[in-house]
Each structure stands twice: as structure tokens, then as C-alpha cells.
Amino acid sequence: MNIGYFPGCSLHATAREYAESLTAIAAALDIKLDEIKDWACCGATSAHSTNHMLSVALPARTLMLAEKQNLGRVLAPCAACYNRLASARQAIAKDKEIAGRIQAILGQSFENSVQVLSIAQLLSEMTGEIRDKCKRPLRNLKVACYYGCLLVRPPEICQFDDPESPSSLENIVKAAGATPVQWDMALECCGGGFSLSRTASVVRLSRSILQSARKAGAQAIVVACPMCHSNLDFRQGAINMRDNAPEPMPILFLSQLVGLGLGLDPARLGLSRHFVSPQPVLNFINAVKLQAEDREHA
Amino acid sequence: MSAEHSSITSPKEHTSARPQQSLSSQIQNATGLDPACCYQCGKCSAGCPMANEMDLKTHQIIRLLQLDLDERLLASEAIWMCLTCETCTTRCPNQFDPAAVIDALREAALKKVPGRVPKRISAFHSAFLDQIRMHGRVFEFGLVASYKLRGGPLFADVESVPSMLSRGKLTFTPKKIEGIKALRRIFEQCATEKSK
Amino acid sequence: MSRIGVFICHCGENIGRTVDCARVAQSLGDLPGVVHSVDYKYMCSDPGQVLIKQAIQEKNLDGIVVGACSPHMHEKTFRKAAASAGLNPFLCEMANLREHCSWIHEDRELATEKAIALGRFIVEKIKYNRPLSTIYIPVERRALVIGGGIAGIQAALDIADGGRDVILVEKESSIGGHMSQLSETFPTLDCSQCILTPRMVEVAQHPRIKLLAYSEVESVDGYIGNFQVKIRRKARSVDETKCNGCGECQKNCPNKKIPSEFDQGLGTRTAIYVPFPQAVPNIPVIDRASCALFRGRAKGVKKVVCGKCAEVCGRNAVDFDQQDSFVTEKVGAIVVATGYQLYSIGKSQELDILRGYGEYGYGTIPDVIDGLQFERLASASGPTGGKILRPSDGKEPKKIVFLQCIGSRDPAKGIEYCSKICCMYVAKHTMLYHHKVHDGKAVVFYMDIRAGGKGYDEFVRRAIEESHALYLRGRVSRLSRDGDVIRVQGFDTLSGEPVVINADMVVLATAMRPQPGIAALAQKLSVSYDQHGFLNEAHPKLRPVETNTAGVFLAGACQSPRDIPDSVAMASATASKVLGLFSKELLEREPLIARVDRMTCTGCFHCERVCPYGAVERKTLTDSKGRIIKVIAEVNQGVCQGCGTCQATCPSKSVELDGFTDEQIYAAVNAI
What we know:
The structure holds 3 protein chains of 3 kinds.
Chain A: E1 2-5, H1 16-28, E2 32-35, H2 44-50, H3 52-68, E3 73-75, H4 79-94, H5 96-106, E4 115-117, H6 119-125, H7 127-133, E5 142-145, H8 155-158, H9 168-175, E6 179-180, H10 199-215, E7 220-223, H11 226-234, H12 236-242, E8 251-253, H13 254-261, H14 279-297
Helix pairs in contact in A: 1-13, 2-3, 3-4, 4-5, 6-9, 7-9, 9-13, 10-12
Chain B: H1 2-5, H2 11-14, H3 23-31, H4 43-47, H5 58-66, H6 70-74, H7 78-81, H8 87-91, H9 98-112, H10 119-135, H11 140-149, H12 161-166, H13 180-192
Helix pairs in contact in B: 3-9, 10-11
Chain C: E1 4-9, H1 21-29, E2 34-40, H2 46-59, E3 63-68, H3 71-84, E4 92-96, H4 98-102, H5 108-126, E5 135-138, E6 142-146, H6 150-161, E7 165-169, E8 184-185, E9 190-191, H7 192-205, E10 209-212, E11 215-223, E12 226-233, H8 248-252, E13 258-259, E14 268-269, E15 272-273, E16 285-286, H9 292-299, H10 308-312, E17 325-331, E18 333-336, E19 340-342, E20 368-370, H11 371-378, E21 399-406, H12 422-436, E22 441-446, H13 456-465, E23 470-473, E24 478-482, E25 485-492, E26 497-503, E27 505-510, E28 512-514, H14 518-525, E29 552-554, H15 564-582, E30 586-589, E31 594-596, H16 606-610, E32 616-622, E33 628-635, H17 645-649, E34 655-657, H18 662-670
Parallel strand pairs in C: 1-2, 1-3, 3-4, 6-7, 6-18, 7-10, 18-29, 20-27, 21-22, 21-27, 22-23
Antiparallel strand pairs in C: 5-30, 8-9, 11-12, 12-17, 13-14, 15-16, 19-28, 24-25, 25-26, 31-34, 32-33
């Protein structure tokens, strides 16, 4: 399968492991990621907080480039980028006047024909393949699936999964052989874009997410957004200091977990780039593997 | 107090349509949402992750908009506290979209009372958009440096730079996209675009 | 040559301000055939009517045109005046100079011209009016009541006490409806069953009430005074004539774990059961979906799996082979009292516009229950014997959070209306809880308290002041499980503070919705309904219990959310309407109906196909020797509503609508 690819700024920098693991599982699942040439930043929170037109025009430029490349569908692995791209697409589709103004700003005609997919949407289509190719090393690994705010919300934009009790990540994780836990904070905000400007808020919000996952018995949290990852991983040290230093909670990108399920080499999945070491997860996988081998021998 | 309240439309004025220039009509034009459809149930504020830190809660923001209390509303820190997590929008019984309204209010505040925007937050947004204007994409190292120069906390997170580097998460060499000139034109056009 | 009188009304200033009435009268007076034309300040007043009567007699008029308000207002007045002066009332017509002219125009000159044209229109029409006479149709003086809840019971008893026979149809195996499930009732806290069961027994014993329980209306034909109703008597699998209600079958049924509908799933019942001990009739029914014998049969198992109930029945009343049967009843009036159901917060909804409450867990969190479930917990006859206990672990909840407006006033979930009763029953619940669990704390999240009614607001104040319920104004954003408590994430808009409460139990005051299947029933009855399925009354203020189908009346929550006093009042109102209708042997109706010309009708029956009321019948014409000449259309005088669709459709121009014949319409149109 060929699909357009909008990595977004984070996947080229702080979330490099997301891009690496995505590339790795794409190869394993026969997905060809066709990167949009010369894409620009989606504008993120800063654009929509300050200039509505800009928040539509920046993603529109990228969608226009994708259209020129004949990419029918584009994957935006970052949940925030996904939300901006999908919102812009809908704003243009819904309102002829906006569509006209955007064309004037871009200085080019544009059909708005490109569909935007989140990673949850793409991998939901692939659960069959994932299940088939799964090597089952994740058996009994308990993970908390964290959607954050924007992966399935707002429903008018996403039109995918249930905005209040979603199940797509759980289904993907199950296909990859792991066991999702029942928990309470799957949709609560981690603090998002306040990582730099209001770090204390991020610490407060992300802390309750980590506590809830821990209480539910999760061994790792699975995320689909570089911002969520950064807040839960990079800021976890500061958070855990306030909580009498509990056992650190590894934060895995969905693509990393699927990669592990497919039996890919952890080194190719960028697992070493995390601040919270995912070693406990790898140890658990190894232990399960050894047990299985023992059983075979017996 | 009295100065603020003088802008509440008197019952007599309510018999005619809202004046076109009022903030509520401006926001309605920009978002297509009529503030009158909010019945102040507070479900937005109940679910807001930032409610505890906001000087005005989400439903109060909408209430002040209904009353056209521009000054208090645009000068409030609260509109800058919104994380756009869209919980309010997802759960609103009236299918109102507080998150979109708050975005529109921020835009209005930047135009009308730029001095009242919380410094760190405006510094962050300016730094972020500068990055895009300069390179077409955001380079986090440049972003952090520019944010700090614009008034962000100088020493926060400095200790994490080495660990970021060792994990290959920071790049020092920004690369411009090819269509940077066209992109800058988009910025210029959007800056001059008057909202509907 | 006609002798027409024209009477132009000023309606005070209403017409006179914009229309030069004297000029209109003068101008119309010049028309050929008009022999008398005057204007007057108030034509509908007594002196105004006297003017008309005198003119009819003195000038021997054979047609009257009154230029005044809408015929909806005063056509009856003027026709009566004409009749009292000896003129056939259908030779009196109105020109609407108010709604159609003076109220909507400003230019006096143009408005006067238009008023003259409107008058001319009617003058030319009336030249072709024929005298018509009132139609009389016989009335079957028995009533059908659909639904055996409190509204249906009240309507049936009132009609029966008024001396008329009633057939009461109830789809469940017992009458009683939702009221039989309630613990106590607001605002007096009297026990619901204590006040209801005597009325149920009265129904059972009343010589004029024929109770058809476990039955549904299959089809309705006919019209006011003459309905034929086919009723499906669902197979109980128990012979009503033999069963004496001893209860042995129920005691011996091996399948005891079926969730009880009466207890809202909080208790259990057997497969052969009566829903509650005071059921009327006290005859069990076999739930074939849960009965082992019937399940075995459905799977094609040859061996008889069970049959315990039949074995222990001393009267041989259990009949596994019973089939649905049908009875047809002739009635003159129908009262619809089908009641309500509660909105479910679940993910799957039977209507597309409805959405569940994912933020409240779609109904999957144990100990999040609805108002009727709480009623069963609080009821002495309920599954806990009246103790407030959590369904999950049987523990006594020390903190209960009540949420109002769940579904109601929530356009996002598809329901924008207020369910009206919730504010009151939530206040009642907090009191019952306080009475039963003294150290318990009740917290209520509300948006507005709507306690309009005698003693209602005082009742809510008692809940707050005496039972110390904490009322917080705001909607709750989310309910989530946190161990064995429910985390309630809400907001108090009065203090401006976010509120998080760890509750032991949450009670949702979910919206009142019409019964499932209401649309199908409404279609059978030709009664219109709103987008939510509530049946429409004929006029929201002046005809609140009638419908647009003559002879069909509404009582209780099938029309909109209603509490018990409202439902009972409505039921009594329908009974008085029905008894009024039955006070005459013959019904009068206006003769403005379609008429078929026997000579020219070719029997194509286009009219039959287009008639929205099913008023066209086929009639065979025979000669004196009984040989068929032709089959033609004939209009049933009782059913025809005078819409004129047949007239417009008839290819051979054989249908005429009395009062609106082609001749009349052409003449009128040609006059303008």
C-alpha cells in the first residue's frame, strides 16, 4: 500500500524514534510512505491561537502539495498535526468562502481532495496484517492505551472511533499481541503545548495520567503523539520526584509497540532515545520468550 | 466596576439586534457560533483540565461574551490557558464549540490588547511562528532559544540539553524548505486578512 | 337573479384603519345581484348580527357575504345568524378583510382596492352556492382506551362510571404502568401502590370495563363514532378462563434468574410469571424467549424439555400451544394513553438522532442507575425490600449523586425538551434516601429547578432544608470508575468552583420519551406526532386532549412529559370529551364533503387512490333485476374531510366538493 506521509516537525527532531519505528513497521507491513515534498509546519497551537486564517492556510499548503503529488491519502502520525490538517481540510470543505480565500492566499487552485489519516486510523485498517505477522513476544504485557485529546476528538473532525470510549488503539495493541488495561485517563489532556510555557501545568496533568496507568497495572503507556510522549517521558523525571520516585513508566509510541510485536529489532525502533528507559518492557519480553522456549524444550 | 458594566446592553437595547461592532457579533462572524445558544450549564468547565488554573472558567468566558464585557474578557489570562484539548467542544450539550470561540478571542485580544497577553505564552507563540516563518518548519533548539530571548524562563530546562543531544533529539542546523518565499507570502497575507 | 346582501365590518380599527369600509360596501353594492350593502363597526356584535337578520327578512336575501375577519373566527357566528333568520346557513360566506388584507398592508388606497376584490370574489362565488344540510352520522357509544397506566385507568373508570362501555387494551400482562413501579409519589410522599392498586382492582371489577391485557391494537378502521378496531390478543400460554392465580406454576418454574422488567433489571423473575403480586389480572404469562420448553421447541428439540408449570397447575390452565388471536371491537371514540419510556444512556440507540452518553460510561458502570431503578430500590415491594443498596455489592451507599437533565435539554444527544418530572422526583429521591440512610449524603447536580405546581417548590425546599440534599448548579462532565467508587467530575456554576465527588452510587434522571412503537400506533390512528414521537394535540391551548383525527383523544405522557396529577387530569378531560360525544345518538357534521355524480363516474377510482382519509368506497349499481350496471365511487360521509383532492384528480369531473364546486371556484376567480 502507498500512502502519503506528513511527518511534521517533531518527527524530524525530538520524536525521531517515532519516525524511525514508523518507517520500520511500514516496511514490515508493506506500506510505502510517500513523504510530501517540501511540506511545512502545520502551525500547531500557535497558529490557531493567534490567527485563524494562518491555521487553515499552513496545512492547506501542505495538502495542496500532497494533491499535486497525487497522494489520495496522507498519514499524519502526530495527533496534533493530524488535528490541524483534518480541521483545515474540513474548514475548507465546509465553507466556500474560506475555500476561496485560502486559494487566494495560496495563489493556486486546489481541490481539497486529500484525505488525512491518523496513525490509529491507518493501523486500524491493518490489524489483520499485524495479527498475521505478529510474533507474539508481547504476550501478557499490560499496556495503557493513551489517546490524549486529539486522536479521536472532536468527533466532527475525526469521524472515527468513539470520542468518549474509543477502542481503536486497544484493538491495534491486541493485534500486536499485548494486553490493554482498563483505565480511566485515556482521553485526558497531558498539558499539550504548555511543555515550555507552563511546565507546572504539564507536570500536574501528566502526573495524574501516570498515576492512573500505574494503578491499572500497566507496564507501559502507548501513545500516538509526540507532544504526549514528550510530556509523559521527558517530564516524567520531574513528576516522579514529586511522587516519592515510583517505578518509572516507559512510554512507547504505538509504532514502537507494534514493531516489538512484529519482532523487529528494538534498535531499529529508536527505543534508546527515550528518557524513561523501556528496558523493563524489553526484559519482560525476553523473559516471556525464554519461558516459551523452555516450554518448547520440555 | 461601573465602567465595565456600562457595556452591558440594557434590556431596552436588547429588543433590537446586537450592534454589529460588538465582540459577540465579531466572534459569531468569525466562528459561525452564536453565544446565545449557551445556557451556562458548566459542563465545559467541569471537564476542563485547566479549570483550576483559570481566572475565568470556560462557561464564564462564554457568559462574559454574552454580556459583551470585552475588556474583562480580552484582558483575562484564562483565554490563554486553554490547551485546545476540545473536551468542552466534544461534550457540550448545545453543540457549541468553546474551544473555537476561545481561539477567536485570543486572536481578538492580540489585535486589541496585545499588552495584556501573558508574556511567556505570547513569547512562545511568537517564537514558534517565527521558526515557521524563517525555515518553514520548527527547529526545537531554535524555538527554545528564541522563546527564552523573548522572555521565556532563561534557565528552565537548560540541564536537559545534554541528554537531549545524547539521544539525538536536538539539531542545531536549521534547514529551510524550498518554498520558503511562498510560505512567507502566506504569512503576510494572513496577517493582513481581515476576519470576516 | 340573486338577491345578495353584503356586510362590511370595521372590526373596530382593525380593518377600518387601513381599509375604507364605506367605499368597499358602496362598491360591492353596485355589483349585479347585490341588493343590499352596508358597513358597520362590529358585525359580530349583537346589533351587527341584528343588521344581518333584519336585512335577510326585509329584503328577502338569498345570499350573505360578510367582509370581516377570518372564517376561523366567526363563520359559525354569521351562519347561525343567517339560519335564525330563515336562510340556509351555507348561503352565508365570509370575505377575509382582516388577516388577508388590513393587517398585512399599509397603503389605504391599495388595501381598499384589494378589499373590494376580495369581496367581489365571494359575491361571485356565492351566486353558485346551493343550500346544504347538516349530515348526521350514528355513534357507537363504547370507547377504546389504549394503555393501562394511570392515565388509561383513570380514563376508563371515568367513562365507565359515566355509563358507557369501555375496552381497555394493555400490552403488558398487567395494568398499572410505570406508576405501579414507583415507591412514593411527590409532593405528598404517599405510597404509589397504595393509591394505585384500588383503582386497578376497580377496573377489574367494573361491569362496564372489558380489560384486554397482554393485547395490542392491530389496526384501526372507520371514523369518529364508528371505529372498527382489530386487537391482537397475544398468547399468554395460560388460559385466562381457567387460571385462578394460585401462583403454583411460578413457584415451581426452574428458571428463576431472568432479570425482572418490573424491577428494572435489579431483581429476578421466573419464565412463567406475574410481574408483581398485585397484578391485574392476576394471571401469569410465559415469557417464551426465556422458557426452556419454548427454547427447546425453537431449536427443534423433539423431547419436551420442561413442563413443570403445567404439571403443577391444578386447573389445567397452562396451554403451550396457545396462539395469538384477534378480536374486532366497534367503538365510537379512542383514548390513547400509552405513556412513556426512559431514555437509556447506552451506546446503541433505536433512533438515529439519539446518542448515548460515552462520558458517563454508556451505562456500563455498575451503581450508575436511572430514576426508575432507584424507585425499585426505595420501594418496599422492590428487590431489596425498600433498602437502598448498591446493585454491585449490596452495600449501603453513603454518598449518592443525582444528575438531572440526562438526555433532556441536551440537543447534542437529540433531545432538546425538558422532561418536566425529574426535578420533582429527584427531590423526592433525596428525601427517601435521607429517610432510609440517615448518615447518607445526597448531592444533586441540576441546571434549573422547575417546580411549578401546587406544593412543588415547597417540596424541593424541604429536600434541601430538611433532608439536607446539597444542590449544585451545573452539568457533570464525566463519570468514571475509581476502584469501587464513581468519580463525578462536575462544576458548581454558582460558586464558580470545579467539584469532584467520589460517589458510592449515581442516579441519572434520564429523559422521558414516548413508548417504543408509538409511531406505528399513531399511523394506525392517523394521529400526527412530533420529531420525538410525542403525539400532537389538535391545539396546544384550546384543544389539548383532542387530536386532528376526530374521535381520537390523548391522555398522559404519550402527548408530552407529564407527571401523575397532569396525566390524571388529562385522562378525566378525555373522559368528559368522550362522554360528551356519546351524549348524542347522532353526530352532526358540516356537509362540506365530496359528492360523486353517479351518471358520469366511470369507476376509475383515481379518487380512491389519492384520498388521504380512505373515504372513497366502491358501490355496485344494479338495475331492477339485480344485474350489475357499473361499479362507481362513493364517498363515506363520516370519513370525508372535504380536502378536495379527489375533485382535483377526477378525470371525468365527476366529483364535486360541496361548498367548493368547480362552478363556484371559476366564478370567484373570474371576478378578480
